[in-house]
Amino acid sequence: MNIDNLKKFIQEIVKKATELKNKHTSEKKASVNYACIFCQNNEQYEDILETIKKLGKIIKETPTGPLFHIAPLDTIAGKLNLLKIRKPDPTKPELGDADFTVGNYSEFKKINLSKKGFSLVTRENFEMIELVDSDFNVKAYFSNPTLEKQLNIAPCGINCSTCEAFLAKKENYNKEKREKIAKEWAKKYNHPGLKADDMLCDGCRSSGTLFSHCKKCKIRKEIKIQ
Which of 13, 136, 171, 194 could bridge across to 182 with cysteines, CB 3.0–4.6 Å? Predict the structure, then answer.
């Protein structure tokens, strides 16, 4: 599968999942925050893995397949950045799924969970509502919190949880340690003038302290942080 066909395939999954969502909910404007391709055999899995590397990078390995942060892909439900390639699984005959961000999850759950086709899936640190319909060969999900929030992934793809500036604030690094990081970053990222006090950040999706570059990041400004 070449890169153009892969993009079209992903867009088709999101399109069908959006149609499924719109048929059964009133969340017509809910944007997509994640999508997954259900590979049906090993050949397809290896083929897609080889192509997807041209679109992005792996940010998390999971037992069922890798999660990628890809270059923003325009879809009918907004720009998509998170994509998982799922290993072949006979219990997953569909094309794939898409996860949508709803305005008020608690209210959405209250209104829809008792309806046909909806079910609640609970995990250790989050839950999601699954929507299935035999007329569709995709699934739709509504996660709380969304995957990008669960993993603390910034819109640019950086994992804030492993960022030194984030860890400096979270773990209360002393000034000496922050000065050392500032010098390393100044050289590594061609960012002269960095000081210890600059090496403090609560994460891109936070409304708290931000690293100087994150404050003026164009990607962050273009995406509404929720």
Answer: 194
